[in-house]
Fold each of these.
Amino acid sequence: MSDTLSTTFAALADPTRRSMLAQLARGEATVSELAAPHAISMPAISRHLKVLENAGLVVKSRDAQWRPCRLEVAPLRRVDDWMAVYREFFEGRFDRLTEHLKTMQPDRDTSAGRRTPRQRKEKRS
Amino acid sequence: MSDTLSTTFAALADPTRRSMLAQLARGEATVSELAAPHAISMPAISRHLKVLENAGLVVKSRDAQWRPCRLEVAPLRRVDDWMAVYREFFEGRFDRLTEHLKTMQPDRDTSAGRRTPRQRKEKRS
DNA sequence: TGTCTACTTAGCGAAGTTGTTAATTAACTA
DNA sequence: TAGTTAATTAACAACTTCGCTAAGTAGACA
């Protein structure tokens, strides 16, 4: 789980953290302000924030005893880039996909995946 | 972690699983075919696949002793919808964001987040 | 029937996550 | 100096995840 994308997805896999990001999207906020809407302890919030920081989604600065947090979208852009491949499937742009399938499908049974010489029955659609 | 989006993000937070999705984006594949590129045991693959199935990202069918798997993009569409809010930050369409910030920022210190009556020093930028 | 292939389930251990409370650090304030 | 506020760290319990090996199920085929 050391790669950037995995870290980002893992950070996003929590409703509390996504809620915090949504709040930061509306503007900077301190740790207490981010904690307010949630019914969990400050240490728990602090740790959620650390997860977001480690994922590069949040940057903390200092202002006296406060720690204003700011949203950093670079990792989300990487998620968006990753999504591009799959977006073709649900945005109706099937042109490139269809072409892709036509190119890849015939290679299926010669790929490393098929370990037995036995042929699988092809179902006609 | 019971909500759909969290389950989807958690499923995506693993390079092996994302690799399997990428393979399925090129066309249907059996469990063995999905296992082939990875240096892990079949049971491990089977479980990764179950995670993807539980997230609704993969649908398994039956063909004799084979289990052809197919990509299901509905959960990815939901991720894409969730991304929409943040996409404004890195796609150069700052118009709505700027407007948003102008509306939200003045409310900051009257929000539930500030528990003390004490005013925080505002830094001029 | 017996064996092969494809795949899943069970059981284990190591490691990580998420919450808690209690204690600690750091900065402001009276 | 002493007290308050903001936030973090430490220590712990409950639970999940991810890998493994071994064993089990189910279909094809000789």
Amino acid sequence: MDEVFKALADASRRSLLDRLHAKNGQTLNELCEGLSMTRQAVTKHLVILEEADLVTIVRQGREKLHYLNPVPIHQIGERWIRKFERGKLAALSELKRQLEKRDE
Amino acid sequence: MDEVFKALADASRRSLLDRLHAKNGQTLNELCEGLSMTRQAVTKHLVILEEADLVTIVRQGREKLHYLNPVPIHQIGERWIRKFERGKLAALSELKRQLEKRDE
DNA sequence: TTGACATGCAACTATTTGGTTGCCTATTAT
DNA sequence: ATAATAGGCAACCAAATAGTTGCATGTCAA
């Protein structure tokens, strides 16, 4: 879980996930196109995404195809974000009460 | 949005949010209890959480009360995670097809 | 009013991170 | 066979991060 949060912390990596969401199964070179960093930098980001299990690779000849795995993202939604949505309204109203109390 | 992802990337900060979720409106010293880092380290984490608008503070005398703001977490769920959940099944089946194709 | 308590500020440090360059290897096409 | 293509590896670098220590300030209670 920590690895997933860490992987998602970088905007370049999130944009790689976006690109895979738009078009799945891209090669490394495809994913490098239009980006202002070297292929090696992109490789490093993809390794981090693989280690967080957000991307799965399939080697085909000299090419490396990258596939998005949406499961960890879904799990963050289910196991982490939802927890804070329960009681969301309660938290906000408590804060509001406190802010008003300050000016008494 | 980037600030929120960055703020959530650290396990100590996520656990601070958890603690505020369990008991809202805690002081700095309260939040430090039981943690194996100095008060100053906790302060730095809280500043990052404030800047990401995940925590709101209310000063009361010499104390500083911390309140959880669940809105940015909710927004990540809505604006980011949901996007990847649409088409989740499609992505997985495409990957499966590709993995099988490899062994033909 | 003086001491205890809650927090703030600044300087410093070690480690991690995001990126680079240079070169090497494996596969495909001519 | 050989050149072009796709990717891998390792060393290096600068900046950001997570933490520390030491001291200062503001507030409350005896």
Amino acid sequence: MKKSVKERILETSIHLFQEHGYHGVTVEKIVTEAGTSKGGFYHNYKSKDELLYEIHDVFISYVIEKAEISYVENKTPVSKLSAILHSFIKVFDMYKPYITVFYEESAYLNDEFKQIINEKRDRYRKLLQKVIEEGQESGDFRKELPPNIVTMAIIGMINWTYKWFKQDGPLTMEEITAVFKDLILHSIVTEKGFEEAKHLNQLLSFAGVIQTDLSV
Amino acid sequence: MKKSVKERILETSIHLFQEHGYHGVTVEKIVTEAGTSKGGFYHNYKSKDELLYEIHDVFISYVIEKAEISYVENKTPVSKLSAILHSFIKVFDMYKPYITVFYEESAYLNDEFKQIINEKRDRYRKLLQKVIEEGQESGDFRKELPPNIVTMAIIGMINWTYKWFKQDGPLTMEEITAVFKDLILHSIVTEKGFEEAKHLNQLLSFAGVIQTDLSV
Amino acid sequence: MKKSVKERILETSIHLFQEHGYHGVTVEKIVTEAGTSKGGFYHNYKSKDELLYEIHDVFISYVIEKAEISYVENKTPVSKLSAILHSFIKVFDMYKPYITVFYEESAYLNDEFKQIINEKRDRYRKLLQKVIEEGQESGDFRKELPPNIVTMAIIGMINWTYKWFKQDGPLTMEEITAVFKDLILHSIVTEKGFEEAKHLNQLLSFAGVIQTDLSV
Amino acid sequence: MKKSVKERILETSIHLFQEHGYHGVTVEKIVTEAGTSKGGFYHNYKSKDELLYEIHDVFISYVIEKAEISYVENKTPVSKLSAILHSFIKVFDMYKPYITVFYEESAYLNDEFKQIINEKRDRYRKLLQKVIEEGQESGDFRKELPPNIVTMAIIGMINWTYKWFKQDGPLTMEEITAVFKDLILHSIVTEKGFEEAKHLNQLLSFAGVIQTDLSV
DNA sequence: TATGAATGAGAGTTCATTCAT
DNA sequence: CATGAATGAACTCTCATTCAT
């Protein structure tokens, strides 16, 4: 099935924005690469700004949906956390360009759009923090850790991947995710949580990951 | 002592860029707020692009310098790592606006500048990775972890702070750093390394951090 | 009887043009309000320009027709002039939006259309001037007045009404017309003409018009 | 003394707007004819819209000033009215292109500007109406005339001149003004007022105006 | 050195018009 | 006959940069 003009504009612009930044890409450039015209662009989007919003919204909505599914489909804090972390594999394989735009160009969203997006970002953060808190109550996660900082530490570790992960590089997102899960679980679980993590096979026992060269 | 025109331009622009993005701030705006003129601007900077480079360079050079001092002034992997992590406290308190610009506007550096900056970013990453590798060789850090991914995980966790840390917010960078060090050490040390970390008092024993509300 | 698409477009556009000016109204707006489509528009009119011409032509043709009838159906200069002035009552009640467009948007007619319209405007002016001249010859109107300037003075007084007359305002066109006829006749008739005007009851004897607030 | 860029833009644009309408003239056209650049234009005017406002304001402010001077410098209603009418001679000789723009392009002023202009238009109208009312009270003008309609009739007669008066045509504004004053005075004065008008030499005794061809 | 009026290439956006369905 | 997605020329406006003073 042929892709619609609107879809072609969206996909083209994401890749261009990722590479050159929102202001480094003109509408002219987008429509040329997407095989349409300025008229076609403005027939589908009210403004370049609205296109930027669309990119933001598609991504954050997808991430929230996956995380919420992970939450409800798992019972224990360790398994919920593992599942949420795992859901990021798909996100990065499919949405890496979205993420770059999401985290680097949001300054250029207009205020109205910015608010909508921020509310969704908050929903995601709060869900993760809730899992941490539930784990502390159940005795799976160390109680001396402040859940808000831990939440942001985890989000930072994961999100930062967009800065260095290369889809055609030597590391797969599965490998990276395995290491992240291991690091996060080691850093927050109690002995009780450690046993479950082991049973769920969420920890690295032997190194198997190729060493490569990365740029921050 | 009165600040020079060049310094005033630099400081003004960093704050404006942080808030509105590089393309959301005009030279006109900068010179008005900095109390100079277009002529004054171009007398001190060859272009707006060069100013952006200057901001990048001031920041990354400072970070590298501090990290390298931390490296040579400490002997063991655990203490080296602790010191490097600790050096970020100062960075965030002083350079938060620089970091935002550094990580969100580098797409707009011209290619020549971009290369210079990337080389410095690499130097920093490689230094941290070297500490991890030395710790694995000495038996302080778990050998099954791939050092490159661990390096990026740590960098991500730390850097992400610029997205949510607020200088006049409820958390101090000291508190945040204490938690980060605890998390990182728990996630990578062996039993041997754990003992040293305890002696160096790098681990949280009892929670003392206020719980607050954050936005991602 | 249902109105045709063409009629709906014409009526809708006149009101929109009157309010927002020819360039302040898009074809999109017209077709939406008229309940048709772009295709429907261009099926009925070759261009937006032609629609503007149509509006001009409908109006000026109507005015000429009425004036010429007034001319031939009356015998004396005083009665001819009164009848022509009177025919404007109907014009304003029915055609006020046409008049606004006619006098404010004709700059945007293309040259070919502009010429056709100008010829019809001339016919109207010449008819009125002819009445003035006949009145001077018959001794009803003062001979020292230059008929061309008098003609334009009358036309100006009448036409200007479109700038301030409000259909749902406090004054009716009948009241206004009565005053205009009084003013015009007083200003141009001789004693002989005055007698006839009195007999035809074209002069105000007692004021009966409500005083109201108007904007130029 | 050389004219400033701002003045050259103003004068050029008035003539272009008069001929082709506000929307028939591009900023590009204005700056080319005025011998400057787009940058020069926007350095002096915030927008094309603001330029349109400037044209409106220069004109209406001038007209009000002259009318108010005429009012205070004359004592009787007949002389006040004559002086105000007379002040239009200068207006038309100097400001004819302004008037055209003023009366045909005001639909394109933005709402804020439109309000400011409308208030000034009102001031002018009210001043004229006041003279009429004072004349009725003093017994110089016929009491059966509604002053508001008379005011608008006079304004219409005068203003309409911009539609047909040609600076290099066969009629001078002095000649036209003489006729207008005669018509207006004949149409509104009582016998008492008539005597004063005669003494002030405001009435045509013998025709001296050349007959010419005009277009409405 | 310092100023700010002037530049002009290039940006985002509009909209009358076309035409395959 | 009717539709509305698509076109692209032309528009208003921006802003980094220059340079006479």
Amino acid sequence: MPQHTLIRRKITLNDIAASCGVSRATVSLVLRGSPLVNKHTRARIEEDLRQQGYVYNRAAANLRRRTSSSIALVLNDLGNPFFAEFAAGVDEALGQAEFVTLLGSTGESSARQQTVLGSLVEHGPGGIILSPAEGSDAEEVLSAIGPQMPLLLFNREPGGPRPASSHWDLLALDNQNGGRLATEHLIALGHRGIAFFGGHADSSSCRQRRAGYVEAMQAAGLDIPADLQIECMPTRTEAAHRCEALFAGAHRPTAAVCYNDAVALGLMLGLRQHGRQPGRDFALTGFDDIAEAALSLPSLTTLCTDPRARGRQAAGMILHRLADPLAPATHTVAPVQLVVRASSCPPPFN
Amino acid sequence: MPQHTLIRRKITLNDIAASCGVSRATVSLVLRGSPLVNKHTRARIEEDLRQQGYVYNRAAANLRRRTSSSIALVLNDLGNPFFAEFAAGVDEALGQAEFVTLLGSTGESSARQQTVLGSLVEHGPGGIILSPAEGSDAEEVLSAIGPQMPLLLFNREPGGPRPASSHWDLLALDNQNGGRLATEHLIALGHRGIAFFGGHADSSSCRQRRAGYVEAMQAAGLDIPADLQIECMPTRTEAAHRCEALFAGAHRPTAAVCYNDAVALGLMLGLRQHGRQPGRDFALTGFDDIAEAALSLPSLTTLCTDPRARGRQAAGMILHRLADPLAPATHTVAPVQLVVRASSCPPPFN
DNA sequence: GGTTACATTTAGATCGGTCCAAATCAATCG
DNA sequence: CGATTGATTTGGACCGATCTAAATGTAACC
């Protein structure tokens, strides 16, 4: 039996108007729930809309109204659970405000970031939430999105001087405070030789976390040997490899503040391979509180940044700016919270 | 010093046309790289476009051309790294095809899925990639997106009868084959008592994986004792708790095929707590090849599904359908690949 | 010179909505 | 009864692009 699929043109306002014997304008008023239209007319039209399976064409409406109902979300690494959670939060909050999320991911390439931004801008988002790719520059971002586009920077700032004319908002994590909290916690447990492990100094978030560590160490009158400042790529495998650097120098640390959870989990691996049991022979902390942190063995003491909540917050901030494009630029620092788990043990001979 | 921000209207085709002393049509031809327009005119116009910082309004163009340059991506759980990677792959491939991704996440709620689909459809995507929320129904999906909308189902099918008139494509993982491969691998190592561990029978993917296990066991003439089919929530902690069920019955298994990596990692934990060393006293396999699988101790033998590649594939499939809306529905099963690591050891007395 | 051929440009309708000012209509008022 | 009022409805321009068919300009041909 041959299947006969009826190919219908899409139903528009005109079709409804014609079939109801009213004008386009009236139907439009019904769609927008205007109180101007008569009760009976409204009922009749609404019925017809349902029957014919009408779907609203928001693009057409936006064109005429010179509005937008979308926000672009451009992330440097969607594969990272931290950003995935963030995206989920953004989308959740935008959805509630009847906005839609235009996604773009750059894979940490600033060239790709330019392309992605350019393409997204053509789709006319009301604003952009951007977590800049590493090595991207403020000037080039400006040239990609133009001076008028509302922009919220998340997590880090692009390099280079901030263009004068643009008022961009910023949502950052309280990295310095986080670094300080973790360090103070270890000091309170009795540790004296504490390393800062992982990350790169050219990342602003790493610099800030380390600054917090330095602050706490100095406040406690502890010294900060250069051979206990160990850089590495913020990945598990790299961290595992760099483990030995911890014990290569003259100072034998009993604890480490790690750049983030990935690094901390990698370091745990490395410690085991060197015959030390993390959480018993050596204490460490992470940063981010990714899902695995609670499940690892030992469970990881870390700083909770609640990326999903950050996403909702970011969405709120960009919507705020849409409502008031001339407001002065905002610079928000989101609090982080120390979550104490098993990985931060007292020093061995305490 | 008061900052004076010049608020300029957005530049349109008309502005460029006027400032160049040509018609809108000519500028439009230049934008689309038509060979019709004179070399000098083109150069002059292109210069002007650049100078004035013109940005193309794709929405307006799409309206007139009755085309779309976006694809909606609706996921049941963006927080899950598997889907996040998938999304990254989708976006990557769509971007290359000059399409933009409209994101929506449903958090496994079919009610929310309806809302999200409804909202996205109004933005006029060319098609939809949907990983259905648990408990969502084919009929309701149909009513949300209409019969005309190209749809690619990923990972699972919505419940209820498939609506007759719609030709929806499907991209699934080869769960059954994966289950079979893992089981055959264990059998080849010499195991005879092999359990299937974790997951719930009401999940289609779990049923399929177990079917592969059963297939391999039967082909080898091994029996499949009911007390070695152990269900549990697909989480690490649950899996750790259910470990003892493996050894409670009369049959003492020497190996287990686990529903997925999370379960396998949890089971490793449980085994250790019961004094058995996974990868030496007991063999096990996972499914998904999440990042941790390679890094755990022992490293985990598992099935690689390459979610990023699946994402690219899904994007390709939906674009294909856009190009040919009347083609018959596709039902693609993506291959999975056995990755042998340390967790699958031979049985103890072999 | 008039015609044809070709290259280039353009006027004006159109996509599917929204907006505005004006039209329609019934009811109320002086 | 004509005028005023308030409630509804509407024609037509408009958003920023594309499309078609026709107009324009120039060089080549008989």
